[in-house]
Amino acid sequence: MDPVSVGLLAALAGGVAGEIGRQTWTALGALVRRPFGRGSGQAPAVSSGEAELTRLAAEPGDQGRAQALSTALAVRAAVDQDFRAGLAAWQEQAALVRAGDGAVTNLVSGGTQNGPVLQGKEFTNLTFTTTPPPPSPSASPPTGAPQVSGTDPAR
């Protein structure tokens, strides 16, 4: 099983991805709060991940706390078969967050942009008041160039 991405954990703790991110974070909390799986009848001497989850929620930007949670999840998955299955299912759900759930790629290239350039995903209620772009150099002949109009008199 692949470890849970530290970046993903920090992002979810920080509230990214809107509602799906919140639901994914809540589902992880429910998963780590489950009792250890069936087996010997006593929980192994490893972290459930709950303390690490709580610490990361308190400081979502702390990469060390995100790493500690990722490690706790991996160790618990190694010793608890039920948790491993639940974590695998959770990672499938979290893939929607990693994929961006309709990711946007912004690219601006070639030429000069004469006006606002927005990069992002969801924009609403925007209004721009801009001046018209300057005339293109190819729109009018250069100064001093001969002007030709009408028909060829030699015909």
Write a concise keyword list for the protein shown above.
155 residues; 44% helix; mainly alpha
What does this entry look like structurally?
The protein is mainly α and 155 residues long. The chain is built from 5 helices and no strands. Helix 2 (18-33) runs antiparallel to helix 5. It starts with 5 loop residues before the first helix and ends in a 57-residue tail after the last helix. The model has no long low-confidence stretch (mean pLDDT 81).
Topology:
Elements: H1 6-13, H2 18-33, H3 50-58, H4 63-79, H5 81-98
Helix pairs in contact: 1-2, 1-4, 2-5, 3-4, 4-5
Rg, Cα atoms, Å: 29 Å
Residues in helices, as a percent range: 40-55%
Fraction of residues in β-strands: under 5%
Count the E strands.
0
What structural class results from the helix and strand content?
A: mainly alpha
N-to-C span: 84 Å
Instruction: Label the overall shape.
Output: elongated
- Mean pLDDT metric: 81
pLDDT < 50 runs, ≥5 residues: none
Helix count equals: 5
How do the SSEs run, as a string of H and E? HHHHH
- Largest beta-sheet characterization: none
Summarize the structure.
By secondary structure, the protein is mainly α. It has helices spanning 6-13, 18-33, 50-58, 63-79, 81-98.
